[in-house]
Amino acid sequence: MTSGTNHQIRLAARPVGLPKRGDWQFTEVPIAEPRDGEVLTRVLYLSLDPAMRGWMNEGRSYIAPVALGDVMRAGGVGKVVASKHPKFAAGDTVSGGLGVQEFAALDGAQLTKIDPKLAPLPTFLNTLGMPGMTAYFGLLDVGNPAEGDTVVVSAAAGAVGATVGQIAKIKGCRAVGIAGGAAKCRYIGDELGFDAAIDYKAGDVRKSLHAHCPNGVNVYFDNVGGDILDVVLTQLARHARVVVCGAISQYNNTTPIKGPSNYLSLVVNRARMEGMIVFDYASRYPQAVSDMAGWIAAGKLKSREDIVEGLANFPETLLKLFSGENFGKLVLKVAGE
Ligand SMILES: NC(=O)c1ccc[n+]([C@@H]2O[C@H](COP(=O)([O-])OP(=O)(O)OC[C@H]3O[C@@H](n4cnc5c(N)ncnc54)[C@H](OP(=O)(O)O)[C@@H]3O)[C@@H](O)[C@H]2O)c1
Asked: 294 CB contacts (<8 Å, ≥6 apart)?
């Protein structure tokens, strides 16, 4: 028997623009007993993702919206407290869609056992987790970079972007990152080994791109959309690939999304733009995790997490993604290991 209280954060209203505190409801329920096939997990770390903003909206997408009144959807890492599923036992470390709460009772089929000896637990929400998988498959499968190609990535100091640039380097490409602020630009250049960094808040992105990509952009991995996408489109090389991963600059718009006005560059350069959703690659995650863990062990792939503590801080912490205050993968620590 497990007794005690489970603190949860539920979606109370569909936000207009940036989510406000009133869009959330804080609830307390008794910790659930796992039913047959279920696993009760204590949540340790939660992944805070730009996609959460989209899940809060009504409407058709690649995944159903979070229903009003439901616990907010979130990926996480936790420790099994009790199990009625044959594959899991108390004490196992697992990852899965645990939700913004302290305890999750879920069907064991929705959880993955992870090896805590492989890396610190927050890394399983970063390079060894969903953002890492996005970078790996988005760049390698959709971007299809060849050695010597110039790969440009936006939100380059963030979870997905930092990994894209590092994989590009591992594959023998030239990596150019676009990020906000001098500290992030120094980080991707000095610590992550990008060949060039462009501070989009400081200068003329078009001019800098031209200077750093004299032969054009072969792969653009787009995390931000909006004006930056439009500028990069003007600098494509022939047969370039534009990976549409996300458009964080547009997620809180209260007016229609700004589409690319320079898209005819795709015609001129015989280029293509292709969207991707990481979940489509789920059957291939084990291979990617194995490659990524190997690169981490070899010192070729660095992982940086920005960890904020306390479930109750979820609403304000999520907003850091949209102001650019997060420096690395944004993680909420819910309980100590
Ligand atoms: N397609 C998929 O399957 C998939 C999966 C995961 C993530 N994604 C997408 O990948 C992108 C990056 O996600 P992440 O988890 O790695 O987040 P992240 O990059 O760690 O954090 C978000 C970053 O976006 C930048 N940003 C915020 N507002 C911006 C604006 N108006 N203009 C330009 N940059 C802005 C900020 O960096 P600066 O300080 O540099 O501005 C911020 O730190 C998002 O668009 C997300 O939706 C897609």
From this structure: none
Minimum CA distance residue for ligand 1 atom 2: 277
162 lines ligand 1 (CB under 6 A): no
Buried b (16+ CB within 10 A) or exposed e, 80-118: bbbbebeebeeebbbbbebbbbbbbbbebeebbebeeee
206: number of Cβ within 10 Å: 14
What is the pLDDT at residue 1? 53
For helices 130-137 and 285-297, angle between their N-to-C axes, nearest 10 degrees: 100
d(CA 158, CA 180): 10
Q: What is the pLDDT of residues 18-69, one digit of tens each?
A: 999 999 999 999 999 999 999 999 999 999 999 999 999 999 899 999 999 9
Q: What is the band of 230 on the pLDDT scale with cuts at 50, 70, 90?
A: very high
Strands 103-107 and 76-83: unpaired
The residue whose C-alpha atom lies closest to atom 19 belonging to ligand 1 is 158
Residue 147 structure tokens? 């050695």
Determine the distance separating the centroid of ligand 1 and the alpha carbon of 291, expressed in angstroms.
Answer: 23
Ligand 1 center to 306 CA (angstroms): 14
Q: Is 177 in the pocket of ligand 1 (CB under 6 A)?
A: no
Alpha helices in the chain (DSSP H): 51-55, 130-137, 159-170, 182-186, 205-212, 226-233, 265-268, 285-297, 314-323
What does the longest C-alpha to C-alpha distance in the chain come to?
Answer: 66
DSSP states along 294-329: HHHHTTS----EEEEE-GGGHHHHHHHHHHT---SE
Atom 20 in ligand 1: residue holding the nearest Cα: 158
Residue 225 Rama label (left phi>0; alpha psi -120 to 50; beta) = left
